[in-house]
Design a protein that fits this description.
3 helices, 6 strands, single chain, elongated
C-alpha cells in the first residue's frame, strides 16, 4: 500500500522570462502569481498516522542554505525575478540587482517544468533525511496564475 498527501503553497509573486522563446511574447519579462503543489508518498504512516507532518516547512533543524523550507520558498519565489542561468541578458539583470532594483534568482533552466525539477531536487533530499527515508517527495506541480501547470514526477519506488 502507498499513502500519499499533498501540500499546496501559494502567494508568490514572481517575475521571469523565457529568453529562448523567440516566437512568443514569453521572451519578455512578465510576472505571475505562482503556486506549488508538493506530492509526498510513503509505504507506512508515522506515529501520528500521517505520511508527512507539514510542520517541516518551519523546522529549523532541517534547512536549505540556513533557511527553513518556508523561508526558502519566499526567498526564491516571492517578489523575485527568476531567470535561467543561460539567459544571455543575465549580466544586465545582475547589474539591476546591484542597483537595488530587483531580487535575482537563477535556475539551471527556466520553465514551470524547470522550476518544478529544481524544487524537487532541492527538497526531496531534505524530506528523505527528515523522515529517515520513509517519505519521498515524488512530484512537484508549479502553477502560473492557476491557468498553466508544469510538473515533474519521479517513479515512486521505495
Amino acid at each position: 500500500m502507498i499513502y500519499r498527501v499533498e501540500k499546496y503553497l501559494d502567494g508568490f509573486s514572481t517575475c521571469f522570462r523565457q529568453w529562448n522563446a523567440e516566437h512568443s511574447h514569453c521572451r519578455f519579462l512578465h510576472g505571475y502569481a505562482i503556486s506549488f503543489r508538493l506530492h509526498f508518498a510513503a509505504k507506512s504512516l508515522d506515529q501520528h498516522n500521517w505520511v508527512w507532518d507539514f510542520g517541516w516547512l518551519k523546522d529549523k533543524n532541517h534547512t536549505i542554505d540556513g533557511m527553513t523550507a518556508k523561508e526558502w520558498f519566499h526567498y526564491m519565489f516571492d517578489h523575485t525575478v527568476v531567470l535561467s542561468q543561460k539567459d544571455p541578458a543575465l549580466e544586465t539583470f545582475k547589474a539591476l540587482e546591484q542597483q537595488g532594483l530587483l531580487q535575482l534568482r537563477t535556475l539551471p533552466y527556466f520553465s514551470c517544468e524547470g522550476i518544478a525539477e529544481f524544487v524537487l531536487n532541492t527538497l526531496n533530499p531534505l524530506v528523505q533525511q527528515h523522515s529517515d527515508n520513509r517519505v519521498t517527495l515524488f512530484r512537484v506541480d508549479v502553477m502560473e496564475n492557476n491557468k498553466n501547470l508544469g510538473a515533474v514526477e519521479v517513479d515512486y519506488a521505495h
